[in-house]
Design brief:
Blueprint (H helix, E strand, L loop, with lengths): L2 E9 L5 E8 L4 E5 L6 H16 L7 H11 L6 H22 L3 H4 L8 E9 L2 H14 L3 E6 L27 E4 L1 H19 L4 E5 L6 H11 L6 E3 L10 H7 L4 E3 L10 H5 L5 E2 L8 H14 L3 E2 L9 H13 L6 E2 L5 H6 L5 E3 L2 E3 L12 H4 L11 E4 L4 E2 L2
Parallel strand pairs: 4-5, 4-12, 5-7, 6-15, 7-8, 8-9, 9-10, 10-11
Antiparallel strand pairs: 1-2, 2-3, 4-14, 13-14, 15-16
Helix pairs in contact: 1-3, 2-3, 3-10, 5-6, 6-7, 7-8
Bound molecules: (2S,3R,4R)-2,3,4,5-tetrahydroxy-N-oxo-pentanamide and cobalt (II) ion (CO).
The site of (2S,3R,4R)-2,3,4,5-tetrahydroxy-N-oxo-pentanamide (EZ4) has 9 residues, from loops.
């Protein structure tokens, strides 16, 4: 079998997505997600201009060899654009291998290690009282874990607080919109939100919170300590993580578990965090960390150090990524949680899939391969729209991490 064609499909059904579809000479096809939020066209060009020509004629069964070819062969290693492009190829080849074998991909990864993939949803609202209603909505749907984000008194907008119920889409303008941040206001407010939510919902519900890279290690240590009585499942991205050793300082002061990694691309970005046991959950994903092959390497390393998976799953990760994530999630020994933000109806229609939500779990498809596809005719009805992630400034105008 040979790769005959590979198409890069850019579309915007509700938001922008980049998808790679590989076609073989025997008619078997595979799909991979290549969406990098706010930088979509860079990956589309990387694939179309630099990767696709080298794929034509290759044996689609050689997944590992193709991964190494694209990683070592580019000379310029790592980085989000490169690793997202490699991820798309890797994912599509796993899809093809599953279809050829007549098995869902999780069977090729060793089969089920659990009955379902526990997911968490996003409850958000401008204030504490109204967020209780949003958490209750998820509990009623059967969710066993909920991420809670609220507005901060004195700040106009805050990360994670959506305009609509059960939906949040931060990439909102062609040129980045600007938000204002105050660490003081945030630290003063957030513990009281979790006190109220824990009090209302009791000890059984798993609660999570995303700090979104906005604190310094000692500030994060203080927040972690203030949240300890409310027993969070995790505090996510407490600080920007380029400085991996910075997490030692957080660890010294708090037992609130830490989850990091949605912006990481390779095992090298989290090697120290994992081997020094500085985090509890690693949030790397299929689409941004080199596909199923490389993500499994990261999770295997993590398993040696008591670190569990907690893959990113916001709406900018397409149903193709979600389908792939579920095959890995159900098979690995050290699964923790999977983030799950529901896509819009338009997105779901363009990416027909057969994974399903049931009582707080997502269940991977039983179809051969990944069990997801792209309707190219429908996708063509939703052309790309420039959209960037916002930027963040402190109240005095200083640039800050968003
Ligand atoms: O800001 O996916 O945990 N989820 C997140 C997301 C990210 C977006 C960036 O593309 O942090 O909301
Ligand atoms: Co996050």
């Amino acid at each position: 079998m040979k790769i005959e064609d590979a198409r890069v499909i850019v579309c915007s059904p509700g938001r922008n997505f980049v998808t790679l579809k590989i076609v073989t000479d025997e008619g078997v096809t595979g799909v991979g997600d290549a969406t990098l939020n706010g930088r979509e066209l860079a990956v589309a060009s990387y694939l179309a201009d630099h990767v696709v020509p080298a794929l034509i004629g290759r044996d689609p069964g050689r997944i590992e060899d193709t991964w190494q070819y694209l990683y070592k062969g580019s000379y310029w290693r790592r980085g989000p654009v490169t690793m997202t492009a490699i991820a798309a190829v890797d994912t599509a080849l796993w899809d093809i291998k599953g279809k050829v074998a007549g098995l869902p991909v999780y069977q090729l990864l060793g089969g089920r290690s659990r009955e379902g993939v526990t997911v968490y949803g996003h409850a958000s609202a401008p204030d504490t009282e109204s967020v209780l209603t949003e958490v209750a909505r998820y509990v009623e749907l059967g969710y066993k874990a909920v991420r809670v984000q609220t507005g901060v008194p004195g700040l106009q907008t805050t990360y994670g607080v959506g305009r609509g119920r059960m939906f949040y889409e931060p990439a909102d303008a062609a040129v980045p919109s600007e938000a204002t941040w105050s660490t003081e206001r945030y630290l003063a407010h957030t513990p009281s939100v979790f006190a109220r939510v824990r009090d209302e919902f009791g000890p059984g519900l798993r609660l999570l919170h995303d700090v979104h890279h906005r604190l310094t290690p000692i500030e994060a240590a203080r927040l972690g300590r203030d949240l300890e009585p409310h027993r969070l499942t995790w505090m996510e991205d407490p600080v920007p993580a380029e400085l991996q050793e910075g997490f030692r300082l957080i660890r010294r002061h708090t037992t609130t578990p830490i989850a990091v990694g949605e912006v990481f691309n390779t095992v090298w970005d989290c090697q120290q965090l994992i081997t020094e046991q500085l985090v509890d959950y690693i949030r790397t994903t299929v689409v941004h960390a080199g596909g199923i092959s490389h993500l499994r390497r990261i999770f295997d390393l993590a398993a040696l150090y008591h670190v569990r998976s907690g893959s990113h799953g916001a709406t900018d990760l397409s149903p193709v990524c979600m389908a792939a994530a579920l095959h890995l999630d159900i098979s690995i020994p050290n699964f923790g949680l999977q983030e799950y933000m529901r896509h819009t109806e338009e997105t779901d229609a363009v990416f027909p899939h057969s994974y399903r939500f049931e009582d707080g779990y997502l269940l991977p498809s039983e179809s051969p391969g990944l069990g997801v596809d792209i309707d190219e005719a429908l996708a063509a009805e939703y052309p790309y729209k420039p959209a960037s992630l916002p930027v963040n400034r402190l109240e005095d105008g200083t640039m800050h991490s968003w």
